[in-house]
Structures are given as C-alpha cells and as structure tokens.
Amino acid sequence: MTTEVTDHRPTVEGTVPDWLSGTLIRNGPARFEVGDRRVNHWFDGLAMLRRYAFDDGRLRYSNRFLRSDAYEDAMNGRLTGQFGTDTRGWRRLLETVTALGLPDPTDNANVHVARVDGEYVALTEAPRRVAFDPETLETRGRFRFRDDLPEHIAAAHLVDDPHRDELVGFTTQFGRTPQYHLYRLPRDSRTRELVASVDAAGPAYIHDCSVTTDHVIIVESPLVLSVLRALNPFSEGVTDMLDWQPDRETRVLVIDRDTGDIAADPTLEPAFTFHHVNAYVDGETVVLDLVAFPTGDIVDSMSLAELEGEGFPAVSDARLMRYRIDPDANAVRRRRLYDGGMEMPRVARSAVGRHHRYAYGQATHREGANGLVKVDCETGTAREWWEESVYLEEPIPVRHPDAEAEDEGVVLATALDVDRERTMLLVFDAATLDVRARADLPHAEPFGFHGRFFRDV
What we know:
Elements (H helix, E strand, L loop, with lengths): L4 E4 L3 E3 L7 E10 L1 E2 L2 E2 L7 E10 L2 E8 L3 H7 L12 H8 L16 E5 L2 E5 L5 E4 L6 E5 L9 E2 L4 E3 L4 E8 L5 E8 L6 E7 L10 E2 L3 E6 L2 E3 L1 H4 L11 E3 L5 E7 L5 E3 L2 E2 L7 E7 L2 E8 L4 H5 L2 H4 L11 E8 L4 E6 L5 E5 L11 E6 L7 E6 L5 E4 L4 E3 L3 E4 L9 E9 L4 E8 L5 E6 L10 E4 L3
Antiparallel strand pairs: 1-7, 2-36, 3-6, 3-37, 4-5, 6-7, 8-9, 9-10, 10-11, 12-14, 13-14, 14-15, 15-16, 17-18, 18-21, 19-20, 21-22, 21-23, 24-25, 25-26, 26-27, 28-29, 29-30, 30-31, 32-34, 33-34, 34-35, 35-36
C-alpha cells in the first residue's frame, strides 16, 4: 500500500455517539515491497499511522507513513535490517553485547503508540522511538528518553495506568548475565525510573507486561533469544535468534512495584504469550489474565511465505487463560476462561491494574473471518460477532465519560473485508456488541497491530 489521505470524511452508516470525542491512533506495517525486493516477515512492513478523529458524531480519517530512517532507506531502494529480513539493523544490536554504548538498530516503529511527556511516540521492540504530530501524523524525529537505562530490546507495549498516572514498561539487556529492567515513567517525564533489574533465563522473547496496584508482571517463556544463533552468517534477523526450548518451564515474575523485590516467581509448563489482558490483586492472590499459545511457533508462522499459503498457517489458536498466583506459596494455578481462540485482548482503560469483569479481543477460531469476542471473566460466558470474509483488528473499548458499568460505552475496531477489498471502522455497543456505526475507508489497509484512544488530542 502507498496511498495516504488527510482528513477524509467517510460516509457513516448508523450513528456515532455524540459523547465519543477523541482520537484513535493505530499503528502497523503497511508496505512490504521496495523495488524488486520484499521483506520476509509481516512484522517488517514499513510503519503507517492511522488516525480516526471523532467529534460530535462525525468522523475524520487520515493515514501517513512514518518518515523514519528505515522509510528513507526504503524509498532509496534499500531494505534495512528488520525482525525477519536480513541482519544489518539487528546485527548492530548484537555487536553491542560486549561493547560500551547502546545499539542503533532499525527505527521502523510499527507496533504501537504512546503519549510520553506530552509527545506522541511510535514504538517497536528495537530501542528507537519516533515522535509524530497527533493531528497531521507528520514525523517529528527521533524520541529519546533522558536516562541511561540499558536496553538491547525494548517493550513496544507500555502499560498505561491511569490510577497512578504513569506508564510501565521493561527492557531486555544481553550480556554475561542477561537482565530484564522494569521501569515506571511518570506522565510528564521522559526519565524512566527503575523498578527492578531481574536476572533473565535465556533471555526470553517477551512482548508485553501487566500491572496491578502493587506489582509489575512479566512472563518468561522458553522462547529464548539466542545470541549464538544470530551470529550465524546466514541469519535473517531476530526470528533466527528465537529458540523454542520445550524442556524449560515458563516463569511468571511478579515484582513489587514500590520496592523492586520479587514477590513471586512460580513456574509452570511451557507456553508462549504475546499479549496480556490485565492483572489485579484479589485478597492475597495475584490474578493475571493473558492469551497463551502452546508453543512459540506463532512467530515463524507470521512470515510472508507462510501467510501466502492457502488459509492461515497451521498453528494452534491462543487461549484466554487466568493465572492465579499465590505469593506465599510461590505457586500458580491456571484455567481457561473462554473455549474459543482469542488474540489482541483489551480491557477498559479504567480497569487497568484493577479488577476487570470483561475482556474484549479478536475471536480467531472461525474459518474465513476474525470476529469480536467479549468474555465475561466472572461467569465464563461470551458474546461474539462475526461477518463472513471480515477480519477484525484489535478492538479498543472506550467507556462513556459518565459510565457506571464497566461495559457502558463502545468498542472501536477496524476490519478488513477481503471480498470487497476495503477496510472499515466499526463502532460496537460495548455491552451487546451490536454494531452502532460503520464507515468505509477510501482504501484497503494491510492488517495492523495496536493503537490507543486519546480523549484530548
């Protein structure tokens, strides 16, 4: 895709609620070919920002490629190092393992967005961030934190905790003793404050984290980042660093948010997770909901060669799981909350780090479509929405400003209709999943990753 539009006003079928005022900004890969070369992996497409601005029932849509160094290289006919496409960008990361200083890998920040110290920032797992204008989507340049926290791999997911008015994330540092560095970032600061540095086993490829009122939680699976593998001259990128080691267990690291002490680190049988749902404290128990795959095969299955086959790659769906962690016994019990497959989970922002009842996500277990699912985590029941040939992206719940119930509001989701070759924005009722409004965009967008709704852009 190469098309960019500014403030397009799509025709809206149905009614966008008058109270829905703010901006949804989404991020994701959108261009996969440069000249006669193509990237190898879905995660490697050039970053494109998408903006959906809501005001008094009206909708405006814009999209723009992030003008990163990686984008400039691509426009000049050079594909630089990415997640699974050659090693130039990521090999620089490896060269710093025994050297002083931080790496300077790819800035193709195509995974997520965040607001940091009033700046809007595009994020990826490489430790480079790119600032952009939230109204025009124009690129402002490299964003730098004002600290020296070590990072060879960064968290693209920053947990936005409205109750403590801070973001929480982590970095991974290679070396003789690899470590995870967990940090907090106050709302009006660009100085990350270290919560804890924890010795890593592996280290593992970790994509996401959770918080409770008292803890930061990461899940260390046996999908290991092997530096030795990446030193192979035929390595194509980070994907070739990944080594699934099923003889190892998964470790759940629960870190005290104030003291940095390890409150619990129980282990369980191997599993891999991209995305957490949420976590909270229930009496003396820490509750963590996430979506888990039985193995790490999902990462390789997102290569373009696999995705171009007939149907989806033959990998198991992720399952919505609840981990109940007993810090005193250093033990964890888990159970499935939903029978179907689920990914890209979200809860209402007001529930982050607190007890949540409802989890929204892609329902992934139907052939020929991705649906929307709302799981009642208390009763174990679920509502689903599907349309044939429609593939829903990450759903984002937005509560009514005066809501009393957790599910009073809407769920915003973009979706690709492959039969019509058109992307549309859907506005669902958060309680019933009825479609309240839909709007066709002027083009089809490649499937994206993550986004946030900002009320005051």
